[in-house]
Amino acid sequence: MERAFRERLFFVLLCLSVPRRDCRYIEDNEVTQDELFSFLNSDLKRELPDASSYRRPLRCLDMLALEGQFTFTAARPQRGCAAFFIAEPNKVFSLSYDHVNIDCRGGDFIKVFDGWVMKGQRFPSLQDHPLPLHERYVDYCDSDEPSRRTGVRSSQNVFMLFFHIRNAGDGFAVTVRQHLNPFPCNIISQTPEGRFTMVVPQQHRNCSFSIIYPVQLQISDFSLGHRSDTALPKMSVTGCSEAGDFVELLGGSGLDTSQMSPIAELCSSFTGPTQMKIGCDNTVVRLVSSGRFVNSLTFSYNVLAQNDLYSVDQFCFTK
Q1: Most CB atoms within 10 A, among 29, 34, 78, 156?
Q2: Cα–chain-centroid distance for residue 280?
């Protein structure tokens, strides 16, 4: 992940997380801007000859883009800690506990969340994730089944680890691994530019690709399983939902796609570039699939130039 992008991404995440008083996991961290940026200067995977053997302590507020063993030992009571994990689009995570020494009865906890959650917004949204919300949180202290304590697996390329430790000297160690995902669905991009093909193989699900940047988006190929319907427009502001299989372009300032503004919808298959500039803090390409067909979408994206930000229409309010 490019350092400049990681700095912006982490700053956006912090801004989203801190203001809400009910976001207890992060609200009490005394973190300076310099400390935030220092989080990002040693974690690039390309600098590691063997990422699988990488080890380092977790910070109370952290972001990581690699696998390895991570430990945390509280030097003092730590009330609001969170680690954001992000991988390449075609990867998912697994987490296993190597050692845990916390006081569950005294109020300590370690929780894994399948996705990211900030300021009351979740990615993937409730509509897009295959699991109900309560199953996406796995609390070490509440997990009776041994398998829940020894192994947790994410559904997409991001997950979070929350922890609250009251006693100095207590802590834990976890091993995080990345695994190939043949059909990636619900992705936060590591980079501000790239190219991606999303495929949904006859599954009734919605897949979102989130880019936390204002971008120029170019869709080069869109293939629905049903035959192209000439009665449907290539692009529409609204009106594709009745088709059952379509693409939404969304924009907003938060993570939750259900709270973002619809910009356009793509209703029928085509080959050839369709381009749009979106000046939102978060741009999402969302493929809605009925499960009756194999649907695919290929698109590329790059950061908007500064002068373009003043010339694009703003659709970026949150519902």
Answers
A1: 156
A2: 17
Classify residue 128 by burial, with Cβ atoms within 10 Å: 0-12, 13-18, 19+.
Answer: buried
Render pLDDT for 56-78 as a digit per residue (tens, 0 to 9).
999 999 999 989 999 999 999 99
pLDDT in tens, 202-237: 888 899 999 988 889 999 888 877 544 444 445 544
More confident residue, 91 or 51: 91
Q: Is 190 helix (H, G, I), strand (E, B) or coil?
A: coil
What residues contact residue 23 under an 8 Å CB cut-off, 6+ apart?
17, 118, 119, 120
Q: Which of 312, 265, 305 is nearest to 284 (CA)?
A: 265
- C-alpha closest to that of 86 among 13, 174, 145, 149: 13
**Pairing assessment for the beta strands 206-211 and 187-188 based on DSSP bridges:** parallel
Task: Report the candidate in 200, 196, 222 with the shortest Cα–Cα distance to residue 301.
Answer: 196
